[in-house]
Structures
1.
Amino acid sequence: MRLLTAAVATVAMTLGAQFAAAAPIEIKFSHVVAENTPKGKMAVRFKELVEERLDGKVTVSVFPNSQLFGDNKVLEAMLLGDVQMAAPSLSKFQKYTTQLQVFDLPFLFKDMAAVDRFQQSETGQELLNSLRKKGLVGLGYLHNGMKQMSANTPLRVPADAAGKKFRIMTSDVLQAQFEELDAVPLKKPFSEVFTLLQTKAIDGAENPWSNIYSKKFHEVQPYITETNHGVLDYMVVTSAEFWNGLDDDVRAEVKKALDEAIAYGNQISGEQAAADRQAIIDSGRSEVIEITEAERQQWVDAMKPVWKQFEDEIGADLIEAALKANEG
Ligand code: LMR
């Protein structure tokens, strides 16, 4: 009888272990933008690829539009194991490293191709490890695009921005950038931007085309100036604890799926920016102001002192390496 009980117990334990092994690993992917953006589309593609290839072993749940966490909370939540992946903009890592602030320096990159070259360079790839000490792993860069200035009055030259309140992401570089214009920068979560603009609690903002269009900012901002003054890109991140806890073969498959999803997101980001820019113009809700070369130079001259201000924090070598990427 005792033997039988032991045998039953063994079978039960084996079944239990098998059941535990069969329970899928869930990756919650949290982000703040809409689904019809490069990040939204990339996250859905990642889910499809993972679930197709790791059928039953890994599932991915995507939470767009700040449904699960805003970007200011998501990294803390990741370290607590409440979410496994996110792709905050590079402007939102300041609490974890000052090196990524290089991406916020105004007028540093001449275009998105230069941004891409820097990200793929040895220095850019090393920056993916800049969060390691804080328990986060950078898995890759994802493009959105260049930022444009919008406001409820036309902004042609820097003096037009003076005294106006602008929403910014949580970045001291961006704060300094608007202070150089004698404007008033306010750090606010992305989820609040539309209401802040609509109620005129703030006067303006800086966003890439896809964020303006997908969140309807153009409906509450009658003027958008095509400044292309800075970049808004992302780092896809996970926690070291989660990542290292995956079996090697699973981790490799997940990484492969992510790399492919990122390549897809990066490939469509340029077309999306152009299409959304055109859709904004076609909507007739907002005037897109194209500035002359002389006007652009005024913005450069006004904002560029920020580079010197942050040179020590970011590192002169890093700024130099980023500038090299403009050479092609
Ligand atoms: C913002 O807060 O403006 C952006 O970081 C949103 C995003 O994820 O593109």
Note: The beta strands are 25-30, 58-63, 85-86, 136-151, 165-168, 184-187, 204-208, 223-225, 231-239, 287-289.
2.
Amino acid sequence: MSSTSSPFLLSGRVCVITGGNRGIGRSIALGMARAGAAVAVLARNEEKNSHVLDELRAIGVPAMALPLDVTERETLSGAIDAFEAALGGIDILVNNAGVATVTGGILNESPEVWDTTLATHLDATFLLSKYAATSMVKRKRGKIINLASMYSYFGAGLFPSYGAAKGAIVQLTKAMAVELAPHHIQVNAIAPGWIATEMTALACEHPDYAEFNRMILARTPAGRWGEADEIAGAAVFLASAAADFITGVTLPVDGGYSIC
Ligand code: NDP
């Protein structure tokens, strides 16, 4: 880092983000691009991929998108190779893709929902981190950012597989941070509070969830839902040289929810 350049800039860096075509992932992708990074998006919906690709190119950075399902584990290594062939070595990996299926609890949750949830959040984070870190180790630098949750800390009675996956993400983040620190690779997580996206639309907007929504707002000192763009700044910071001595943390971005 030169003394005249901002440590928050990501010019010349290559960022891969899963689930980067909408919600929090899209905001992080655009935030990384605005900070100067080339950005590759990996998600299933081709129309949404194409839309975010247009937005990234309009910012003026190299960008690409692959229509992939992160639960198809045999495709993930090839995806990392394809991104590197097109954009260069990966400097930043954001494991953001997620699903949350409200099942009401383990009495009602099917093994299929359990498997899909764990595969999307946890298995994909493990595998993509493994493949990206293999490349980062050779270049002696890298940043891995995982999406945790308030349910990394608190019981998720209505969707236990989600809580189990997000709890494990925190421990996987710490494990990878310990292993990869000597290689100048930092691994951190962001734990968003309640952010208005498609994932949370029911709780945020649906009349059937009005009481649940009231509980969320009453417990959030900021007194409101967060916006996806409010997660992007934390991700850009953790991806930047300004965070080179920060590793293994889970950073709440939650309007104070986790302190109440
Ligand atoms: P959204 O539902 O809005 O977006 C989810 C993203 O993940 C989409 O881009 C979707 O793209 C992608 N995705 C889902 N499944 C797969 C898959 N199998 N393969 C590839 N991509 C997939 O969710 P949010 O933006 O709200 O959430 C983003 C992350 O933040 C998640 O990890 C979530 O758990 C976490 N989080 C969100 C909170 C919130 O309040 N919103 C709170 C705490 C954590 P596509 O469908 O095209 O594949």
Note: The two ends are 39 Å apart (CA to CA).
